Every structure is written in structure tokens, then in C-alpha cells.
From TrEMBL:
The lineage of its organism: Eukaryota, Viridiplantae, Streptophyta, Embryophyta, Tracheophyta. It is found in: Membrane. It comes from Solanum lycopersicum. One of its GO terms (molecular function) is glucuronosyltransferase activity. GO terms for cellular component: membrane. This is BGGP Beta-1-3-galactosyl-O-glycosyl-glycoprotein. Keywords: Glycoprotein, Glycosyltransferase, Membrane, Transferase. Signal peptide: none annotated. It is a single-pass type II membrane protein. Its main location: membrane. InterPro entries: GLCAT14A/B/C, Glyco_trans_14. The keyword ATP-binding does not apply. Pfam families: Branch.
Amino acid sequence: MESANSKLFIFTLLISSFIIISHKYPLFQIVKSPSILFVESKLHTSPLRSNTTIPRLAYLISGSIGDGERIKRTLKALYHPLNQYVLHLDLETSDEERNELVKFVKREALFVNVRVIERSNLVTYRGPTMVSNTLHAAAILVKDGGEWDWFINLSASDYPLVTQDDLLHSLRNIPRYLNFIEHTSDLDWKEEYRAKPIIIDPGLYSLNKSNIFFVEPQRSVPTAFKLFTGSAWMMLSRPFVEYLLSGWDNLPRTLLMYYTNFLSSPEGYFQTVVCNVQEFINTTVNTDLHYIAWDNPPKQHPHYLMMDDYREMVDSNAPFARKFGKNESVLDKIDTELLGRKPDGFVPGGWFEYTNITLLRPGPGAKRLKSLISGFLSDKDFDKKHCL
């Protein structure tokens, strides 16, 4: 009994001491804050460049076996010293063809802003390796490309319908946070044939290109995020590209893992990310900036553009078109009538004619492109049409 009373006395003394000390030196201090501060909120993208500056673009031009010459032609048609360029020939291409592209870039003194990915990626059609390759190029451009405003991905079968002076002039006065990305949440048949099947892309683990294959069982449509689909071709703002690469709230990485097993993931990954992040939902412009001609009913691929498509291409006001065959005669017509480009030459512009890289000399293409962009931005319901 005496021992019990002693223990009670000691316990009471400790509690009393704790109260006195904690009153004088509080162990916990409640600080009133208007909002909870998470580590994610401390991270920011690069600030947007002022609209008083000429926009700068960062291009990825990618191709596969036999596309080396087409990439050279497309690069010359797109070249401007204010821009940045990354060229990629996938792993299926021979060392000789890839080395020839490297030599081509090194021989031209102007191409200080052009990089060739020499350690090529294996890119599988309809597989996530195309997404991975796009992110790889974007990472190179963020790390080594200096200042730029928008990232554009093109293939060797794409070609411009306006000059770079036209394009830079037309983009000068629009908000640089906008993402030009075709998108919809209406999956329709794609829910059954793309969202539910599980695919494996051998390009993730093999050095030899082969088709994707399906595995069982299928999966249900996700509930943690909403799926969107659209075009694989886009023009993305620098803040969004940096978010894709850094992913400080982890969503880009989570979705990248999900889309690893998604059929035709290049047509869904970027759309699903931009439309599931509150900071970017209202930045979308629903267009891929391409003229693409589909058969009716549409097939897996758009048809190759030829001379008969020329008028519709121009009337579309789009800055790019696809798909073109190798050395298709309509490309010569585009060079002559739209770009003013001589065979194997560069497209004339202020930088080319007057050696002033900040002097833009827009032509008729700028008027067409401004009409296209203003049509989207001036739509009375533009603010209500994001990520529907």
C-alpha cells in the first residue's frame, strides 16, 4: 500500500511538472494559415514569357526506317533560328541512315538549334513507346533548348502549310498557356475496344520491332480519373510540358503507367492528363492544328494526301497537314505556292532575307491561320467547351 502511494505521488509530481513546463515552453504551437501548405504547392513551372516577345517553338520531328530524307525536307520547311528542333529516327532505322542524318545536321552551320537523338528509341505503332519517345524529346528540349513557348510533335509524313514567319506572327498575341490538343470524353466505341483491352508493347523490352499483343483478362474503366481521347498530334504549352515531366502531384506518372497497357495510348495520354488537372483544364483549345483526310467510313489510317486534296488543305487554314507519301508531287506545289521554298532550300523569311532573326515577314498563311485560331478563341462558348 505504501509502495502504491509512493508511485501515485511520483506520477502526480511528473504531471504537475509537465503542465508547468508546457505552459512556459509550449511543445506545440498552432499557427493559423489561410490554407494548408503541401509540398506540391511549393513547386512551380517556368514563368510564361511576355507577349511582347516573339514566340519560340520547340519541335520534335520523328520517323522510322527510310524516313531520313523526308525528315531533312520537313526540317528545312520548318526551320527558323528562333526555334528549337529534335530529330528522331527510331531503332528500326539502320546505323547508316541515322549517321547520315547526324552528318546532315553537323554540315549545316545554321543548325546550332537542331539536335539528333543518336541513342534511338524503339517506337511501336499504337503502343506507349510513342508517348515515351515524345516525353524523351520534350525532356531534351526543356533541359537544353533554352527559352521556348510551345512544343509541337510531328512525324516525317507531316508538312507545314504556312511559313514559320506566318506561324510565329499568328501566335504572338495569344495566351502562351494555351494547349492546342484535340480531345473528347465521349469514348464511344473506344471504351470497349481501347479502354478495356490490355496490351503489351514489345518495344518496352525488346530490341526488335514487333506488333503489340493483347492479354487477358480485360479491365474496367477507371474511376480515379476520367478518360479522354483525341489526336496524337498537338501543340503543348511549356508549363504543361514541364508538369508532364516533373509530375509533382504524381498524376502524370500514374497515368503513364495506366496507358502503358492502353491501345493507341498516344491518342489518350496527353488528353487525359490535361483534362484531369485543375490548373490545366481551362487551357485547352480543341484542335490538333492539322488537316487530315479520312475515308468514309474512316479506316485505321487517314489516306495519303495528293494533288486532289490541295484546295481543301489550304481552305482548312491549318498550319500542318498529314499524311504525305515520299516525294509526293503535292509537296512541290506547297513549297512553290504556300511556302516560297525552292527545291532543297529553306523557306524565305525575315531572318533569311535580312539576317535579322527577330524580323518576321508574314504572308497570306498568317491571315489563314489567324482566322483558324480566332475562330476557336472568339467562340462565345469557348470557356464552356474545355474538357467535355
